[in-house]
Amino acid sequence: MKKALITGVTGMVGSHLVDYLLKNTQWKIYGACRWRSPTENILHLAEQINKKKRLELKYLDLSDYNSIENTISETKPDYIFHLAAQSFPKASFDLREVTYDTNILGTDRLLYAVHKLKLNPIIHVCSSSEVFGRVKKKFIPINEKVPFHPASPYAISKIGTDYIANFYYEAYKLKILITRMFTHTGPRRGDYFAESSFAKQIALIEAGYQKKEIFVGNLKSLRTIADVRDAVKAYYLLVTKKPQFGESYNIGGNYTCTVGDILNFLIKKSTIKNIRIIIDKNRLRPIDADLQVPNVSKFKKHTNWKPIYKFETTMIDLLNYWREKVNSKPYINR
User: Do residues 304 and 297 touch, judged by C-beta distance below 8 A?
Assistant: First the structure.
């Protein structure tokens, strides 16, 4: 039986990847998380986790090398999906050291452990489209060769992640594949991210917890939206469909719009009318990556992957996810 280790298993992407692998493979799955990681996103898998039925949790902290080496030594995975990160670009301006340590040194610790243990798994290292940052219009849509121009400490950390992964491939011949996923969302998306914050605020307004006001940041940024459920299928194909080690791939959806367009769509789906939109300066970044439109032809050509979920479905599912959460217990808006 093949074995997969997923770092960041309790996050949006990690939890959906588990769902996909449980349904579409016979692999044994090890989910790596910190002891204090919220388990809300994997509660629906509690029975399998408790019985260790194809799914088992392992404690791993990217800031602690021993926990990384111990987990990899115990599990000896055939595949590693390295998804764990400090993943909030806006928060990274205030959490620079945590962001750099987790994303740059954490990735180095992980890959060094694989190298030290002389194991040979296929490793997916998740970088980010944020590495491209403030892209000039002449580079749109963004292919893999567009120069990096980071617009946040998070983006800088992901450049470090990207470079470290490439180093371990070239220096030690680790079987590494790098992805730069563009905006992807859906159920379980953290409320730090714009579209999820909008959906949460609408759900709070509908439930009577918030006035008919939505607080927003920059609404002019251009984004290409993918569904997280399409994203995890892409990650599976990445490591199983004749993987080309040392390659980097841009992955993203096929629906492009502004952040303001996303907000307007969600408001139209609300049961409440005449909701005010208020610009919150605390939600604005000092510098923004405002043209995030990918060219994904390289990845599609290699894997024949294509997005299935429509933008409308993704957003409605996200809104309903927050409605269910808000109605199940009180939530405090940030």
Answer: no
Burial class (CB in 10 A: 0-12, 13-18, 19+), 283: middle
Half-sphere exposure of 70 (CA within 13 A, CB side): 10
Conformational region of residue 298, where left means phi above 0, alpha means psi within -120 to 50, and beta covers everything else: alpha
* DSSP assignment letter at 35: T
> Mind listing the pLDDT tens digit for each residue in 287-316?
887 899 999 999 999 999 999 999 999 999
pLDDT digits (tens, 9 = 90+) for 236-258: 999 999 999 999 999 999 999 99
pLDDT at 330 (0 to 100): 54
**CA-CA distance, 64 to 60, in Å (whole number)?**
8
DSSP 148: P
**Which domains does the chain show, CATH number per domain?**
3-185+226-251 (3.40.50.720), 194-223+255-288+310-328 (3.90.25.10)
On whether the pTM is more than 0.85, the answer is: yes
Tokens of 212: 């008919």
